[in-house]
Design brief:
This is C4-dicarboxylate transport sensor protein DctB. The chain has 633 residues and is of the alpha+beta class. It has helices spanning 13-74, 78-82, 87-94, 98-115, 150-156, 198-206, 238-247, 311-441, 444-472, 483-493, 495-499, 518-535, 568-571, 591-601; strands spanning 119-124, 129-132, 161-166, 173-183, 186-195, 210-214, 220-223, 262-267, 270-276, 287-296, 303-309, 481-482, 504-508, 513-514, 543-551, 554-561, 605-609, 616-623. Among the domains are: 78-196, Beta-Lactamase (2-Layer Sandwich); 201-242 and 253-312, PAS domain (Beta-Lactamase), CATH 3.30.450; 413-472; 475-633, Histidine kinase-like ATPase, C-terminal domain (Heat Shock Protein 90), CATH 3.30.565.10. Bound molecules: adenosine-5'-diphosphate.
């Protein structure tokens, strides 16, 4: 079943191609851009929340470790004030004799051992060391003038002296706690305890904690990473640098600024710092980013900073970002695949609908055309019925005509028949009278001869009447006819006319059985031969040719004469009924018409030829008996 292509409503090419082209051109870069964007958002969000969580954890760690530092420092704050209670110390300060010094030296030595501090010493109000716990050492502070030290200057004014510095004698760093020794409301000297805080650093290192403590000048005094020690956490002005250098607080250290590769302020006391990697931890070319959380240490002007590495977090955030990008790509791919599939289904549905519509239309058209066909079929049937009726009427008319022709022929022949019969009747009368006389005379031989002649005459008369009867009989279309017999019969019917004619008959035909009623064939031949005889009545040497051949499966009998022929005007009307050129009662004009219709009724035909050498030839074509139409011989 074919579908009407106009039923498919295809989009115009200009409209159908453009969106697809745009999609194909812009969709992949868009997806890649979105992937990158979402990957970044994923990375950023993960990092942000990761830092927040780390920050919260770090806050607790910061608190914990800052407290540890505070307690480590505050452990020693009471120690210098203890010396106020020691009478030997006040004695020494009041009277600096070698005995008093020795007593205090030994006392301080013992106290220092017990408190596990680095050194304990006592200074007079001028800043000279009067007694010290390390009096036995070569680099003992004894007799040294430390009046330039800030802790001394504070303490001698009655303020607590807190100071981190590097020792001027041995360059050893330490935390100095100074206290002005009072006696009766007057400062008589200063007691100092030097503490080493390296134990804190070691503890941090053991705990793999990255932290540092920066002092009031912003100088890192304690650090889990030794490389950061004595670095400034904030930029120092030249003036400050000079002041610090003069105070020898940090001995001769250069006090470079701790310069991170990147610094990002996040919150109050929270920063993101990136440092070149510590070679011990990671490879040289890498950098480490830390979350730096700072908190001031109580009772000191110092700050404690906790560094939490963010590299793992960053890696996790990168993974998260990649995951988000991949997930998005997957979702995008699934969406595209789903969309494509949806479109394919939609196209299929549309095609199916169009096909259904085409089918419906086709069926409608078929129904319409079937209706038309049925109507025209009905019309055709009616026409066929009418035509059959007309044919029937015509056939009946033809039959009537044939019959009329026969009757006419009978009438026409009746004269000659009467003449034919009168002759033998007259002869019979004469012969029978003579025979009676011969019998009376006893001339039996002559009487017998006469009787034989009478018999012959009666036979002849019987033949004449028989042929007349057969001519008049209404034949039917069925049956077979012997051509030779028909020719003989025709000559017999026309016998009386032949007697007066010096006719030469050329029987050049071959005997055949033809598919026509015997009587009808005889009637046709009587007509044709009769006409030929008429045409030759003025011919001194009349000749009749009967020839045959087979043409297109039909038997053709040619009846040719050498008569006067047919003039052109007559040729036009030959087969018309009642057309005749014969005068008076001689012609009815039915012979050829009837013969042609008899031949046609059996599937044959009758035609005329006009030979160049004169005369006329009628060609009778008839089917051979037992031969179906279309069967070749
Ligand atoms: P009819 O013999 O009664 O005239 P036909 O139908 O047999 O009627 O013939 C019609 C006419 O055809 C004849 O009148 C005659 O003029 C012409 N015709 C028929 N046969 C011949 C023939 N063999 N030669 C010349 N003329 C012929």
């Amino acid at each position: 079943m074919k579908c009407d292509p106009t039923l498919y409503r295809a989009a115009p090419p200009s409209l159908a191609v453009k969106p697809r082209l745009i999609r194909q051109l812009f969709l992949p870069p868009l997806i890649i851009l979105l992937m990158i964007g979402l990957g970044f958002i994923g990375f950023w969000t993960s990092e942000y929340y990761g830092i927040r969580t780390l920050g919260e954890n770090g806050e607790r760690q910061l608190e914990l470790h800052a407290r540890t530092v505070e307690s480590e420092i505050s452990k020693y704050t009471y120690l210098p004030s203890l010396l106020e209670l020691e009478s030997s110390v006040s004695k020494l300060l009041a009277e600096p004799s070698p005995e008093h010094r020795q007593t205090v030296n030994e006392y301080l030595e013992g106290l220092n051992r017990r408190s596990r501090s680095r050194a304990i010493y006592v200074m007079d109000t001028t800043g000279r060391v009067m007694a010290t716990s390390n009096w036995r050492d070569i680099d003992s502070y004894l007799g040294e003038d430390l009046s330039f030290r800030a802790y001394f200057q504070n303490a001698v004014r009655g303020q607590p002296g807190r100071f981190y510095g590097i020792g001027s004698t041995n360059g050893e760093p330490g935390y100095y706690l100074a206290h002005g020794l009072e006696e009766r409301g007057k400062i008589i000297g200063v007691a100092v305890v030097k503490v080493r805080l390296e134990a804190l650093e070691e503890r941090w290192q053991r705990a793999r904690l990255e932290a540092f403590v920066s002092d009031e000048n912003g100088i890192i005094i304690l650090s889990s990473d030794p490389a950061r020690r004595l670095k400034a956490v904030r930029p120092l002005s030249d003036e400050t640098k000079e002041r610090l250098a003069r105070s020898l607080q940090y001995y001769w250290a250069t006090l470079n600024e701790l310069q991170p590769l990147a610094r990002e302020h996040l919150d109050a006391g929270t920063e993101k710092l990136t440092f070149p990697a510590n070679s011990e931890v990671v490879a040289d070319d890498q950098e480490v980013t830390y979350l730096a959380q700072t908190r001031p240490l109580n009772d000191t002007p110092w700050n404690f900073t906790l560094l939490t590495p963010l590299n793992d977090l960053r890696q996790a955030a990168i993974n998260q970002g990649i995951l988000v990008a991949v997930a998005f790509a997957l979702v995008a791919f699934l969406l595209i695949a789903w969309n494509e599939r949806r479109k394919v289904i939609a196209t299929r549905l549309a095609a199916r609908e169009a096909l259904q519509e085409a089918n419906n239309q086709l069926e409608r058209r078929i129904a319409e055309r079937t209706g038309d066909l049925r109507a025209s079929n009905e019309r055709l049937k009616a026409q066929i019925r009418e035509r059959r009726q007309a044919e029937e009427t015509l056939r009946r008319a033809q039959d009537e005509l044939v019959q009329a022709g026969k009757l006419a022929a009978i009438g026409q022949m009746s004269t000659s028949i009467a003449h034919e019969l009168n002759q033998p009747l007259a002869a019979l009368r004469t012969l029978s009278g003579n025979t009676v006389r011969f019998l009376e005379r006893g001339a039996l031989d002559t009487a017998s001869t006469n009787l034989k002649t009478i018999n012959e005459l009666i036979d002849r008369m019987g033949r004449i009447t028989a042929s007349l009867r057969s001519f008049a009989r209404r034949g039917d279309d069925q049956g077979e006819a012997s051509l030779a017999k028909a020719v003989d019969a025709a000559f017999q019917v026309l016998g009386s006319r032949l007697d007066n004619l010096p006719l030469t008959v050329h029987r050049g035909f071959s005997q055949a059985m033809l598919q026509i009623d015997q009587t009808r064939l005889e009637q046709i031949l009587v007509n044709l031969i009769g006409n030929a005889l008429d045409a030759m009545h003025a011919q001194p040497a009349p000749e009749l040719w009967l020839e045959s051949d087979i043409h297109e499966g039909k038997y053709r009998l040619r009846v040719r004469d050498n008569g006067h022929g047919i003039d052109p005007e007559t040729r036009k009307h030959l087969f018309e009924p009642f057309f005749t050129t014969k005068p008076g009662e001689q012609g009815l004009g039915l012979g050829l018409t009837l013969s042609a219709s008899l031949a046609a009724a059996t599937g044959g035909n009758l035609a005329v030829e006009h030979p160049a050498d004169g005369g006329t030839a009628f060609v009778l074509s008839l089917p051979l008996a037992g031969h179906q139409p279309g069967e070749s011989i």
